[in-house]
Amino acid sequence: MAAKKVNFTQLTHDVVFASNIPLPFAEIMASVNRIMPITTKNPKNTIRNAISQSRMIVSTGDGRYGWKPRLINDSIIRHTIQAAELADDRLYWDSDVKDAICPTFFASQKYSDRSPAHVALPNGKTSDFSLEMLSAGIWGTPATPEFWTWFHKLNAQPGDHLLFTVIDGEEKRYRIDFQPGKERDEESIAVRNQEFVRLGLELMRKRPYGISPWDFTTYLLATGFYRHPVPPDPFSELWHDGIIAPTMYGTEPELPQPEPLASALFGQAIQEYDYENPPDLPRAYDPDYGLRHARKSRKARRGSVTSFVLRVNHRTLPEVWREIELAEDNTLEDLHLTIQSAFRWLDDHLYSFYLSGDRWDRDSEIGSPWSDTALHTHQVQMAQLDLREGQTFLYFFDYGDSHEFDVTVLKINPLAPKADYPRILDYHGQAPPQYPDIDEETDEMSWDPYRHWQS
User: Fold this and answer.
1) Would you state the pLDDT for residue 241?
2) How does pLDDT run across 79-102, given as a tens digit for each residue?
3) Which fold is adopted by the domain 296-428?
């Protein structure tokens, strides 16, 4: 009978878990070797791989490694209260609070624990905070009546803070305190914010392909960054495209503001515009800098926003659709790029939006940055369109092949929670290929993009 294969990954976890203090790599390796001699070709790589692939064993930043739920103890994390939370009686977590409340979120099934966190309130009561996906990509908790009874007596306002302290990460015990915005120590918080960004940029330089939010929050929690009496502002308020993009791609201009727009559509004079060299074109939209991508809402990283939930379908295939949500400060260019991503098309032609739904109506046309139109997609934010629920407008892609998409406003939410917008909420049906295949025998297309014109 063949000898049972030794699981050195499990032994590595057992060694780190058994220690009350973080251990250097050499000590972890020696302890595993004492339990079971490491007979692999490269013992160091065996243990190093076990550590690097684990979500429970994390670096303390000084050459030692510890058990994550223990390393987060005594951390204090700031949560900015949003208008949406006050209206909905739900708390929406940022990446840092989510990681602290559920440090095993990305762990393997053996170690994952998504049971409720036990949160001590200042009034002596305890509230259980479940971790739930409240909508696409947004995690939080409805909390319990005990919490809301205490909270509503505070007369909290948007911009006030909740401070979460990790008492025991393994036992999932926490404490929560309230701090009015007027009591912020702005000078100390500014220093902490600068330290946060500096650490993030240092990690970015060491990792040329970027760092994920959960890796960054784990680093901050495990290295003791949050064990400070003055917590920085919430994660997404500090770590966003405005900080990350310049490090990875160079300086990027801010989104144009609504006020300077010049267009007859908005009751202002027609602007001077060079459509071959679009002015004020953000780097994210510029093909000269690689793959174009939608820019995340900047308002939504600080708090509640008005959002627009849209359903997009090709007029030939109304049964195939995608639902997309954008924030008030996202642009029509963000919508275009998100549609292209949702349908997995190539973003290789010009395009326009027609607010009237009629592609011959030049007065309502908003063209791509390179289109010869009065107004352009990168200059128009969603809030400026005066949309209403139930309204349908036209997205016209590829002036040659003439693909027509209906964009219907399903919902306008004036109290959408802080999140990453734009985002794709739902998919229905298989997206048609951008260029239909032709059957060589029948000479028929795999689908007819022009069928609705003939009906």
Assistant:
1) 75
2) 999 999 999 999 999 999 999 999
3) 3.10.290
Q: Which CATH number applies to 69-239: 3.40.50.720, 1.10.10.10, 2.40.50.100, 2.40.330.10? A: 2.40.330.10
**Predicted pLDDT at 259:** 36
Q: Quick check: 183 pLDDT over 80?
A: yes
| Mean pLDDT, range 400-428, rounded to an integer | 95
Question: Domain boundaries in the chain?
Answer: 8-54, 69-239, 296-428
The Cα 127–Cα 272 span in angstroms is 59
- What does the mean pLDDT of the chain come to? 91
What length is written for the chain? 455
Spatial distance between the Cα atoms of 326 and 335, rounded to a whole number of angstroms: 7
